[in-house]
Write a structure and sequence with these properties.
Strand content: under 5%
Order of helices and strands: H
Structural class: mainly alpha
Radius of gyration: 62 Å
Length: about 150
């Protein structure tokens, strides 16, 4: 009988130990399930926060691009206007200089051409006088030749 009581005691001890372990395991499972639900909620919150941060970053990037494009466009327009204004001013200055130089050059050319013109007019008068003398000489020579021709005939 002692064996039987011992066997029953062991069986009862094993069953009670099993039930106690199962109860502790059940409590542990319940605790872990509660932690899992908490972690899932935390993960969901983090994912939602991550999506919101990504959307915010994209919106901020878009705004920065638009602002940069606007500023770059304004800077380019300002620089273009400045460049055109400066080019126009330089061209005007160059034209004024060329016009002024043209007046000076024109006067210098006139001073060079006037003496040449006077010299050419004098030469023209001399050439005309020589031409008249030559024509007179040829007429005189022609008369002499005609007289010689008529004297011989």
């Amino acid at each position: 009988m002692q064996w039987l009581a011992l066997a029953i005691g062991i069986i009862v001890g094993v069953v009670v130990g099993f039930l106690a372990a199962r109860l502790r395991a059940s409590e542990r499972i319940t605790s872990l399930q509660v932690q899992l639900i908490g972690k899932e909620q935390e993960l969901f919150t983090l994912q939602r926060s991550s999506v919101e941060k990504e959307q915010w970053a994209q919106a901020a990037e878009k705004q920065l691009r638009e602002a940069f494009d606007s500023l770059a466009g304004k800077a380019l327009e300002t620089n273009s206007d400045r460049f055109l204004k400066q080019a126009h001013e330089q061209l005007d200055a160059l034209l004024k200089q060329v016009r002024g130089d043209w007046g000076t050059h024109k006067e210098q050319l006139k001073n060079l051409v006037e003496p040449l013109e006077k010299t050419l007019q004098k030469m023209d008068v001399q050439v005309r006088a020589l031409e008249e003398k030559r024509a007179g000489a040829y007429k005189s020579l022609e008369k002499h030749l005609q007289q010689l021709g008529s004297d011989q005939t």
